[in-house]
Specification:
The structure is a homodimer. By secondary structure, chain A is α/β, with parallel strands linked by helices. In chain A, strands 1, 2, 10, 11, 12, 13, 14, 15, 16, 17, 18, 19, 20 and 21 form a 14-stranded mixed sheet that branches. The interface between A and B is large, with 73 and 73 residues.
């Protein structure tokens, strides 16, 4: 045998910080302030991260302790992204859009001892603070009123100010040398199928994800880029951009709480963002705003969209109106999140119908990630033919293998993560998610895709929204129930809509159960909340029309 | 404490192979054949790598065993790059330009049990084969005569044919699951300062180097690229391109033995290479050839140059004549090799004098590599001001921490590799190598740069070549001796040349010892071989003129 002679160098968040602040010390984090922006160089960010780490150490935060952040995207949030993992503690990003009970559960389950909170979000956090007995210190970012938190936090909990804490620090902080498998940060899943589950990223996974996302085949940011992360930093590390940009030298644009299309487009036009990352809802909002207002997106070389599928209409509209190619990315909390991006094959000319068609894929498997598709019934690997659908499974150095305080064996299969997504993979590694496993309806032993039905119903001129869920059936086990929201002033009967579908689906796949509702309930991240619809049906709250 | 939930995924060469062959199965390895080319897809390469691994297993090659390659850049060499590490053995690339004694030493010291050899290189290898008692099997690539090897190899050693071995393999080979710290490949330093030393790369270091080199800030290859590796695959893994391209999907162009400018430019024009990697000697050869012939480099989006410093004239000529930007890269066998590339800062316009100036840097520190410059006398870190020179030290996940069967503590300093290069780093991580430590002359306690003297002498119209070495001096310890080759038909005296230098250097830095020689001796990689010059001086073979 023979041993490698390579150095035993640890891939850590502090190594990312060192690189960005020394090689690209002049690159900036620009935080939008409504009118104009606040700026800090990467060298300043690094200095502030040191101060924050020193301050947290003084507050008793030690190795492995969890520090929560309840914040918008901002310079201070970026400082926390480096300070907390860098000192050996664990950054726990908290979703500001969660219902109070879930938020309280997650802070408690994560074991947060300190929580950083934006002043504008103090009222929201104050609602759950009374029940948070383990949180010893709140650190308020910004000069806004913190009275609500002071009033609601249990006795003994301190409420301090971020700026004052940092200003009190005068000496350099020496980042500890950490093993790369040390926990760096954590994020809970949104929990549409049960309790939220905690995913704990390591320094290694964070570093590798950042390095991989900078590949020219993926996001490919460089020092010439100015990356606008509209995707929140409380949502899977803002898709890894905060770290990736420190490796590439790209400047970061942070929208703060200014998430409306008018503010976002003004930010882009003023600061000349070159790359923007957002969910389809945001992109659609920008499109709609652009129909009524003059907007300038000419600085953008690429947009990325993830979180849910972008529509063909969205991709085409940005191509045509703004000469802006939106490339989809696929991932989930469990995958750090980058699993793939839908850059078309090299030979496809830009802004053609073919180009759009390729970009309607969920992604092409990213270097560093392995993916397969397996049979729903037998778990056996299926062919990569772009047709055969099954559950998508992934593995790799930034994919989770368990959950915090919950091994959840049902989520794994021979070392692969079961994504819960149904889809296909083609011969070149392009994959397309068509469904969630939980959104499939098993009728008489055959699978019916609720998402396919919804997509077709969305094409009917009278339909504004349509959600299809499975309901129990004595003969077929499960049958689809179509829940339809009609456009204002439009009219369509269940029989008409069933007839509309009948040419497009096999007879047994067309729903015979229909209900017309005022709005489809949505989750905090804007997805159809089918749990709620099923519960309403179970509780007899829906008026169901049954066709013969 | 809290544990990361990430999967324990190993970064291995077989994972690179899986990615390239499945996601980019249609990308190609194109081997130049003098007129036209041989082609193989990445899917075929993967299949052949399996066959080779199976054949080597049958020949008794096991985990950790060394398999040498004595080959040009070709499809088969690429197959060996994946097969040998993938099966858990160690790929040992042998420099075909080494003197026989060094080659024999390296094969023996490396412990190679099998050697793959191109048929065209059989005569060269046959010269040393009689002394290679540990090599059990030679595998000849190509159908050319192997008689010389059969005649010279010790009794018992087999001489087999690559193509026949692969064709005999019918079943799939299951790549073993390896720990990422397993040895993957090895390469010996060229040994200009003593015995060659073996560097052993791990699977992890190979994977990380490939991933990092695909960053848009570095080589940034994608599926749209066709990468011509003129730099030999026996030279630090051809700068990592064979692996990087399998992660990015870039097609690979392999020149085989056709390394002359006419063949290289014909290859580029025919196959439309988009990126080419070569040492300055090759680039200069292409420039000179292009002065006499019509060549088409229009497909190249970038050239990279490494191994030694490219001149301003070289960069300018490619800019002006071919609109081709040559970007320098810096590295060494010990650094896998990528340490940095000289892409100018984002704000510098292309093809301007400023752009050239930035590209005259050796590089900008690559993400994944840490670099510092330390005092020659005290080893203390020096400022990054672009002025203060010292020895460059590096560390990182693809930097060596020792040598094969030789820990060589004198080569390391607090966990950093001492590169032996003298240079500066500026405030943005641009570094410039100005000297080798061994090329500095210490005179009366002060350092004199032989390279600076040589650069100035090269500017004198009568001088073709000039090498400056240190010779012992009773009063100053060491003094410079200038060894000059005059241009044919030109004339210049020692006094004239000393006078030429005297305005450019301090008085005590100007050599008083001069010798005129017919040619500067060179190493196998074309560098001035100062060891030989010093020996000739010591042996009294040089006629030295001493000025007052």
């Amino acid at each position: 045998m023979i041993a490698s002679t390579m150095q035993d160098y640890q891939l850590t968040v502090s190594a990312i910080l060192r690189h960005g602040s020394r090689i690209y010390g002049g690159s900036e984090c620009v935080t939008w302030a409504g009118a104009g922006a606040r700026r800090a160089t990467y060298a300043e960010i690094a200095r502030n991260a040191e101060r924050l780490a020193a301050a947290l150490t003084e507050l008793g935060v030690g190795a492995g302790d969890r520090v929560g952040t309840f914040c918008w995207n901002s310079q201070e949030h970026l400082e926390a992204y480096f300070a907390i993992p860098g000192m050996g503690a664990v950054l726990h990003t908290l979703n500001i859009r969660l219902p109070a009970d879930q938020l309280a559960h997650i802070i408690d389950h994560g074991g947060d001892r300190v929580v950083l909170v934006d002043d504008t979000l103090v009222p929201l956090l104050a609602q759950v603070a009374p029940g948070l007995s383990a949180v010893e210190t709140y650190i308020v970012i910004g000069a806004g009123d913190a009275g609500a938190l002071e009033a609601s936090a249990p006795a003994g909990a301190k409420v301090l100010r971020y700026r004052e804490l940092l200003e009190a620090q005068r000496t350099r902080f020496a980042w500890p040398e950490l093993d790369e498998r040390t926990a760096a940060s954590m994020c809970y899943t949104s929990g549409t199928t049960g309790d939220p589950k905690g995913v704990v990223y390591s320094h290694r996974s964070t570093y590798l994800h950042a390095l991989a996302s900078n590949a020219a085949s993926l996001c490919g940011s460089t020092e010439a880029d100015r990356v606008l992360t509209i995707v929140p930093m409380f949502h899977v590390n803002a898709w890894g951009f905060p770290y990736g940009c420190f490796l590439s030298g790209a400047t970061q644009h942070m929208p703060g709480p200014f998430m409306t299309p008018d503010m976002l487009t003004r930010f882009i036009a003023t600061e000349r963002s070159t790359l923007a990352a957002a969910v389809p809802t945001i992109w659609n909002g920008i499109l709609a705003y652009g129909e009524q207002h003059k907007i300038d997106l000419s600085s953008l070389r690429m947009g990325t969209s993830g979180g849910s599928a972008a529509s063909r209409a969205l991709l085409e509209a940005f191509d045509k109106r703004y000469n802006l190619r939106i490339v989809q990315g696929w991932g989930m909390t469990e995958t750090s999140p980058l699993g793939g991006m839908s850059h078309p094959p090299a030979e496809v000319p830009h802004a053609t119908p073919e180009d759009v068609e390729w970009r309607l894929n969920s992604g092409r498997i990213a270097a560093g990630v392995e993916m397969r598709v397996v049979g729903l019934d037998d778990g056996k690997p299926l062919p990569w033919d772009g047709i055969t659908a099954g559950e998508i499974e992934v593995r790799g150095p930034w994919i989770t293998g368990s959950y915090h305080r919950d091994r959840a064996p049902e989520k794994f299969h021979d070392g692969w993560l079961r994504t819960g997504d149904i889809g296909t993979i083609d011969g070149r590694g392009f994959f397309k998610v068509t469904d969630r496993v939980k959104d499939l309806i098993k009728s008489g032993g055959e699978w019916i895709s609720s998402v396919d039905l919804e997509n077709q119903l969305h094409g009917h001129p009278a339909v504004l929204e349509a959600a299809v869920v499975g309901i129990p059936d004595p003969r077929w086990e499960e049958r689809p129930l179509a829940c339809v929201v009609l456009r204002p002033g439009e009219n369509a009967t269940a029989a008409e809509l069933a007839g509309y579908l009948s040419g497009k689906f096999a007879r047994w796949q067309v729903p015979e159960n229909w209900t017309f509702i005022a709005e489809v309930p949505k989750t905090t991240v804007g997805k159809y909340d089918k749990k709620v619809l099923r519960a309403r049906y179970r509780d007899g709250e829906l008026t169901v029309e049954r066709l013969n």
